[in-house]
Amino acid sequence: MDESHVSLAHGNGGRLMRELVEAVFARHLGNPMLDIQADAAELPRLAPEGVMMVTTDGFTVQPLEFPGGTIGSLAVHGTVNDLAVSGATPRFLTLNAFIEEGFDLEQLNRIIASMADAARHCDVAVVAGDTKVVRRGEGGGLYLATTGIGIRPAKLRLGLNQVRPDDLILVSGPVGNHGIAMLLAREQFGLTGNLLSDQASVMPLTAPLLGMEGLRFMRDPTRGGLATVMHDIARATGMEVRLSQADIPVSDPVASVCEMLGYDPLFLACEGRVAAVVSPARAEEVLAIWQALPQGREAAIIGSIKPGRPAVVLDTELGGLRVLDELEDDPLPRIC
Amino acid sequence: MDESHVSLAHGNGGRLMRELVEAVFARHLGNPMLDIQADAAELPRLAPEGVMMVTTDGFTVQPLEFPGGTIGSLAVHGTVNDLAVSGATPRFLTLNAFIEEGFDLEQLNRIIASMADAARHCDVAVVAGDTKVVRRGEGGGLYLATTGIGIRPAKLRLGLNQVRPDDLILVSGPVGNHGIAMLLAREQFGLTGNLLSDQASVMPLTAPLLGMEGLRFMRDPTRGGLATVMHDIARATGMEVRLSQADIPVSDPVASVCEMLGYDPLFLACEGRVAAVVSPARAEEVLAIWQALPQGREAAIIGSIKPGRPAVVLDTELGGLRVLDELEDDPLPRIC
Prior knowledge:
homodimer; alpha+beta; CATH 3.30.1330.10; Phosphoribosyl-aminoimidazole Synthetase, Chain A, domain 2; 2 domains; 4-stranded mixed beta sheet; 8 helices; 14 strands
């Protein structure tokens, strides 16, 4: 048997599967709570003043390794970020891996090592996992799914139902970098480049804001981009989201590629940004906190909530108003 | 756009994805805790005397609908069962769906409806979910991953480290039905048949035993079958697992197919059985409890733990002893 690639027998529950789990997954992700012999992991008792939050995400990004990260680090950050923007401190992850027969074990090893680095950096422990091997041609190389558990202060009020008219909208950095980085990494349309994905934990951005009066809502724009988060706000509040195009940070390489291909950066994925809705009285304070952080230097106030019909309206750089429709077609599949 | 099949745009985070989630997933799986607008779900406060347990599982079974269940019901039962055999009461699930472009929406609807039925029957709530759509040819139709959270009594002592010499080994019913049911459903080797998978919740089997003196360890044999669970016991305890072949229940259709194809039913998957290790003093009591249940009528005491070197040894029907090796090749891929 070829020992350098994953075979169907690595998924059968027998010796090879145990060895794969020991040699790759447990080796990198091992921690006192991960017992690969157990059916379920016991979680430690949590502080009684906290509320437990849970979230889950699947990852099918292509390529699996890209400038700025891997599907492994992305799987950690994506799930950590969903907890972070809901006001929670991420604590535990579970991991599912769907591996295609023939997958290179060296590459699997690199990806799981990068996942372990990200988990250590975010201070989350992988407490349970499962691997499945699918036949050659029945999988996209590697898909991951992560479920995250975190703790949120019980008294925190944060959510779409907290948004009020005249609230301001902020974004923590330039949008669309992850989407365009993936496009360039795939050398689609003959384009190449070394633009880094923005994939990262947003905990440094969300943690200093927790408990702040006037913080209404946070979300990390991923699939569907910033525009899709704005549509979520408009739909949930029944109000208009007015964005000022000139104020939305977009990095130069993203802007150039978008111009060449006719993409709108507002619909492209980020994987390390936060959009926040904040009361007018506290927006400058949030902006200052973000701009003082390395990952928030380009943070900006980009719009506001207006009473009126639910829509996302862009105040364009040309001086006109343009209604932003919901995303229809998929500009870039397998982006996360 | 074809409205009866899943397209890549159903996975892009925009309008079609939201509509798919609303029309299929939220429609069937909806409950007060599932908020498809939120990044993370809040779990209710749990009884302080309980310990929280978490487990995760991926599902790639083929065919997706089979006699006795679907990949949806299997995903619920597989995760519920991992919690049940660890002594926990399952409470919450998260769900990841990886859907291949072109997948029939009617079939997706049936599968998620059968998942919802299973969840209701097991009294678990799906509190968070995520869907990804992969390109045609990059997925096996549908893969699911479920993570389960349950509560276990804090004082419960149950695990491989509780197993003692002379303990007896029980199984709750005939082995290998799920594996052979899948083989027949695929019409592999020209064989057909209507054997039902045994996929089901094992909660009715595990719940009456919890807290019983002398209950050492439980596990549900899935991939790798009963033999793989026995190897787990031998490896963890350093002792011999001695099985009596004549006492292991195997149903007639399973035995016939195995004989024809040279399969060993001990290595074939079950999805609704429990293997338990019990002290000699209490084994008959456990057997009586199981045999009084509809799903335990064919329960049997099948072997014992012997001091000695770690191995799984079969006392054959011919009167000899045979060492059972660990599973090497995969007899039936995509079984769960």
